[in-house]
Amino acid sequence: FKPQRPKNFPPGPPPLPILGNLLQLNKDNPLKDLDRLKRTYGDVYSLFIGPRPAVVINGFKAIKEAMVIKAADFAGRPQDMFLNDLSKEQAGVILEDYNHHWKEHRRFGLKMLKTFGLGKSQMEDTIYVEIQHTIDALEKSIGKTLSPDHMFHNVASNVICQIIFGTRYEYDNKLIRIIIETFAELGRVANGPWCVLYDSVPMFRKIMLPIRKAFKTSEACKDVVTCVVAEHKKRRVPGEPRHLIDCYLDELQKTKGEDPSFSEKHLVPYIIDLHFAATDTTSNTLLTGFLYLMTYPHIQEQCQQEIDQVLEGKDRASFGDRINMPYTQAVIHEVLRITKTVPLSVYHYTTKDTELMGYSIPKGTLIIENLASVMNEEGQWKFPHEFNPKNFLNDQGALVQPEAFIPFSAGPRKCLGEGLARMELFLIMVTLLRKFKFIWPEDAGEPDYIPQFGISMTPKPFRMKVELRLTK
Ligand code: HEM
To answer: Which residues have CB under 8 Å from 199's CB, separation 6+?
Structure first.
């Protein structure tokens, strides 16, 4: 029953029978424990999640060797875990293994972002529609305090909904509600002990009640999305796509069953994947950004000075303006660094027997890419442990992007939505900072910067006070 490390496998703490090293990891937030183990065993070490061996990769050098230099060896995804079983062999793109289906859906996703405006003013227009809704909400709260949670979630959700469905939804819409509830439910289960038990002791799988509930919620979510797709299908004119769903159906017609990767049954999980990947990540980064901007008012003011100067006489910012805003850009980069938005990336899997930093790693090993360890790695940053935009500025005040800046990961599985996320963060932050001053409420006490751990790091709920800067 005691798990054994294969020959020349990375070292790690001795495992217990059945449980492996689970008791050595804090179930609410394992990041500190992973850091502690790194100090003992080095940048590449192994752990047993139950009886399953996993290799944890820390620090920029080791991550680069795995994800970039030996990219194809480390680009798989495990296929026998709770989240895979949820998608019942109809994976979209995030959890799909390194295969033809993944490649085609990734290519298609990138094409969709371009088709619907990335790199053109069309995407800026889409984002601006959402910003206007945020501005309306903020204007109603001038002089009062408000909770920004839903506001940023709404923006990020609606930008991706415009691409997928060609429409925006109010926060209380049935589709959006069920998607949010499903992710919350799955997030709770995925971060908790039930999921670990599910992944490590398959014989218990069928009898675990919380797991069965999560499966039911996920099915209900798929049913709602399926209905929405069916509605869109009724109004579709082949060859005249209005949104991603139309384009997918056109692609299906083009390949006429020759390429089984594209099939209607894959469309629903694909949509859910994209919405999931695009929403909490972007909104949690924005929330963290505004938490820091409120509590570091001198940094907020310096951004505002630069924004006022560059946008003087202009109605609105365009993404191209970022070139003339090195300080604001540095702040946005610093927000992404400090947020560690997706701290352990998405689990990878080795596609063949390989080597890393001199250790042997067999095919089919679970790989945990500790992106958080790079974001405050000593030697990579001027100020690894503080919020300081100088991490991204040289002595002349120009923007520099250290190689270790990999909040979107690196290599072939790198975030598909990086371009969209960067555009959203820039346009939303710049537009809101130009128009409003964000203030940490006097009665809010000391800010708590420690986020809740999850697939995406979520800041603890906070309130913000808003004052108007421009009346236009
Ligand atoms: C601040 C915002 C975001 C951050 C920090 C972020 C970060 C990440 C990270 C770390 C991964 C895992 C990469 C890996 O496995 O090596 C990922 C994957 C992914 N992201 Fe993002 N992401 C963000 C926003 C978005 C947006 C807006 C989209 C919209 C389309 C998106 C779509 C995806 C997809 C589809 C994948 C899976 C890629 C694959 O498996 O090939 N992300 N993201």
So the answer is: 49, 50, 52, 80, 81, 82
Overall average pLDDT of the 333-351 stretch: 96
In degrees and rounded to multiples of 5, residue 49 shows phi and psi of -90, 95
Residues with a CB atom less than 6 Å from ligand 1: 93-94, 106, 109, 160, 273-274, 277-278, 281-282, 285, 341-342, 345-346, 371, 407-409, 413-417, 420-421
The SS3 assignment for 55 reads strand
Q: Does position 206 have pLDDT exceeding 70, yes or no?
A: no
Q: Which of 408, 404, 436, 402 is nearest to 420 (CA)?
A: 408
What are the residues whose beta carbons fall under 8 Å from the beta carbon of 64, sequence distance 6 or more? 403, 410
Domains annotated for the chain, with CATH where assigned, are 22-468 (1.10.630.10)
Render pLDDT for 86-134 as a digit per residue (tens, 0 to 9).
Answer: 666 566 889 889 999 899 999 999 999 998 878 778 899 999 999 999 9
Please report, for residues 12, 54, 346, 350, 405, the alpha-carbon distance to residue 377 in angstroms, rounded to integers and kept in the order given. Answer: 20, 22, 20, 25, 11
Query: Do the annotations mark residue 227 as ligand-binding?
Result: no
Q: pTM (2 decimals)?
A: 0.94
